[in-house]
Write a structure and sequence with these properties.
Blueprint lengths: L12 H12 L8 H14 L12 H12 L4 H33 L16 E3 L2 E5 L4 H8 L11 E4 L4 E5 L11 E9 L2 E8 L11 H5 L23 H9 L11 H14 L4 H5 L1
Antiparallel strand pairs: 1-2, 2-3, 3-4, 4-5, 5-6
Length: about 280
């Protein structure tokens, strides 16, 4: 059966009219004045026995009449009418997601502040760094740290290579981009710890390195933790330098500094000094 043809094609005239008006939308109906007159005459002969009301006799009235019967809306008008609802729904979803994240950050089990960090050597030593767990789940943290194949650190894990830097594993979903790690730059002294800066991609250490930019290079199985064979770019800090910084943490009960640590710290200070070539040039 053909659809949309001008001839009746076996389709009742009423349906043919509906099909024509529906397919043309807001364009003029394809009907002549003679067609309208003939339909009006047939309606008069049929009487009022429950039949549908006749179409108005003027050509100019055919389209409005049929539109009101079929309730046709132009797609552009429909889109315009629904834009406010669509925008409101999108904003509601975005605001809802943000509120959920903020609520998770506030009500999460892991709370990190200046008191969360202590003498680094009082933490648990793993190879050349130290670990802890703010939720008391140290065994789970050590299981991942000592695994030869890596793994995902549990919430509450704390990892420090030097006293002035730390990374803390927050609650699941805290920040999927960083695998829920938050980075800290710390000021340490005999009086204790102060947080200089905390966050994600914006934290830069005193050596000029971006914490997130370095740790994101670690292969997935190492969960953002960098070691020499984890895929991260090498850093200028030697094992002797990091060890010396750990053993001379002012928060710890340091009595004496060994000659080896003193030499490593001197090399570190020389490394951090600006190059003298520029001064000589000026």
């Amino acid at each position: 059966m053909r659809c949309g043809g001008r001839g009746s094609g076996g389709v009742p005239e009423k349906d043919r009219w509906s099909t024509t008006v529906t397919s043309t939308g807001l364009r003029k109906a394809r009907a002549t004045r003679d067609d309208v007159d003939q339909r009006a005459e047939r309606d008069e002969q049929a009487g009022d026995g429950g039949s549908a009301p006749s179409a108005p006799r003027g050509r100019e009235d055919v389209l409005p009449y049929r539109r009101s019967r079929l309730r046709i809306e132009h797609p552009r008008k429909m889109w315009k009418d629904h834009i406010p609802a669509i925008l409101c729904g999108t904003l509601f979803l975005l605001c809802g997601s943000r509120s959920a994240a903020e609520e998770s950050a506030v009500e999460g089990k892991v709370h990190a502040d200046a008191k969360s960090f202590r003498c680094i050597t009082e933490m648990t030593h793993v190879r050349h760094f130290y670990v802890d767990n703010l939720l008391g789940n140290l065994d789970a943290t050590l299981a991942v740290a000592n695994s030869a194949t890596g793994g995902r650190y549990p919430a509450g894990s704390v990892i420090q290579l030097v006293p002035t830097e730390a990374m803390v594993k927050r609650d699941t979903g805290f920040n999927p981009v960083t695998h829920d790690w938050e980075f800290f730059e710390l000021d340490v002294s005999k009086a204790g710890t102060q947080i200089r800066k905390r966050g994600f991609a914006e934290v830069v250490n005193r050596f000029g390195g971006n914490c997130f930019g370095c740790h994101i290079q670690a292969r997935p199985q190492w969960d953002f933790v960098c070691e020499s064979d984890h895929g991260c770019a090498p850093i200028p800090l030697t094992r002797a330098m990091s060890g010396a910084l750990q053993r001379t943490d002012p928060r710890c009960k340091v009595t004496t500094v060994s000659p080896e640590d003193a030499e490593a710290l001197k090399e570190l200070n020389d490394l951090l000094k600006p190059s003298g070539s520029d001064a000589k040039t000026n």
